[in-house]
Here is the input.
Amino acid sequence: MSRSRLTGSVALIAIALACAVALAVTRELTAPRIAAERAAAANAALLDMTGRPALPPEAWSGNLWHLCDGTALMRGRADGYAGAIEWLLFIDVAPASRIRALRVIAHRETPGIADFLNAPGHPWMQAFVARGAGEPPPDTLTGATITTRALGQSLTTALATATPPGEGECP
Amino acid sequence: MSAELTPGISRLGTVLTSGNPAWTSLLGLCPLLAVSTSVVNALTLAVATTGVLLGSSIAIATLRHRIPEFARLPAFVLIIATWTTCAVMLLEAYAYEIYGSIALFVQIIVTNCIILARAESFASRVPPLAAARDALIVAMGFAAALLLLGAVREIAGKATLFAGMEQLFGPAAAGWEITVPGVESGLLIVVLPPGAFITAGLLIALSRGIAARRSARGRRTDNPPDAVESRS
Here is the structure.
């Protein structure tokens, strides 16, 4: 290897190291805030769905969390167009499961096409409210066929698996 | 090249209208078309792109004597990718809601050819201050193209303007939304990818039209501009 190539390679390695340090520092500075933002967003979604000022301590058993007043929270993910669509449901469990509210908390669907996932008030998202177990999901949306079909099927399947609280689960 | 070495107000005027790199050389089409569905998305990407372009240009100009000639492209991409990743992390930390809807396209700023083109043709040959000035001018041109496309597509496609600005500016911005009166919903095709190409095509035609008119006017050099104005 010629001398200029050697010094060039050393310079390139030095640049790479400097970039790595810059990334590590930025990550170190932003990580706590990102974690807090994520937790706050999930918590805000839960409170907004249930319409309560506060929730009892977290008690997920699998993907179901009984609030012990005939309602429960469910969580899950649908296999969307561009990866997982993570959702939360607020449901009535007894006597028959029925959706009370729906929130999508994370997704990577196409911006502009699937923006309605971020808007709980969108007519398609509202169409899930009051749907019971065994009922079909709302019609798919033109332009977002895969997204809407995936989320609809995922919610319908999950709702059918919601069971009332077991012995001792609700004191 | 000579035009690039005379930066300043006149250069900014050219970049914002007829000489916009987004329209003349069709660089950066991918993010330009994908994110321009609304003004708030366009504005966020414009801010992120400006940060990455400015940071990379200054870094590359500072290191220009150290970057080996045979490995200059990998070095440029490495620096641009670092700035892009930092921008993604900062966006997630400080604008979480909007990050959720356009994260994918902020990540691909690294493949925006406008940034690599400025690094190769300008920032790697001049001192940091000149590189920073050039980066700002080019970023403003890209931002103008992005915002114009975003505004046209939001009005025609969704019949709103400035919807969702509270995601970027806090609750005070919730009232900024303007709806087109008498229209219930926009033309879906304008928001979908084909609409991006159609709208961009019309804006390119407009930009070319301005350039053609300007060069035609420039040929009549013996007339003062005012006289040309009154005659036309």
Residues 3-50 of chain A form the longest helix (48 residues). Strands of chain A lie at 64-66, 71-80, 83-92, 98-106.
